[in-house]
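Retry 2 of 3 after timeout on previous attempt. Resubmitting structure tokens to design endpoint.
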């Protein structure tokens, strides 16, 4: 893999429902062999199995020892550069407003792989809000909603 990387091969962690094993990932991460990009292979099996969602995949890399700033980079600007779309994966003047607001929780969390094995971590990312093209499309805690008592005025 190191020789392939030197030749320019890029490595994506496309965690899905069948091919992510901590027994391979943890030693690679500890040896400094990180993926070039972190993504999910979102499908029914993966979402209802060990992958769950992209913030969970990101959390697994936090548990394996990657710093938060690198996990964010590997899931945002890293993939944008790989697909030659540098305007994506960043917040900049003139860029389309595609934003995910993540909540970093601390505690004791367990994460499993596709082989049924687990590791523990002390941090977990959860999606709080997603904005696509400037419009809120996911709002876990209804932060963009109007409080009901404000809509009742005048009644």
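Retry 2 succeeded. Sequence:
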């Amino acid at each position: 893999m190191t020789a392939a990387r030197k030749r320019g091969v890029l490595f994506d962690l496309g965690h899905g429902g069948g091919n992510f094993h901590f027994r391979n990932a943890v030693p690679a991460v500890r040896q400094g062999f990180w993926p070039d990009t972190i993504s999910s292979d979102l499908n029914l099996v993966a979402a209802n199995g060990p992958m769950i969602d992209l913030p969970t995949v990101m959390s697994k890399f936090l548990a394996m020892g990657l710093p938060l700033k690198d996990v964010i980079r590997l899931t945002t600007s890293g993939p944008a550069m790989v697909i030659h779309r540098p305007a994506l994966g960043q917040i900049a003047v003139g860029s389309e407003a595609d934003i995910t607001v993540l909540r970093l929780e601390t505690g004791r969390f367990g994460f499993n792989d596709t082989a049924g094995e687990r590791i523990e971590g002390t941090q977990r990312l959860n999606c709080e809000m997603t904005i696509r093209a400037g419009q809120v499309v996911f709002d876990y805690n209804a932060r963009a909603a109007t409080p009901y008592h404000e809509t009742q005025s005048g009644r």
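Attempt log closed. The chain has a mean pLDDT of 90.
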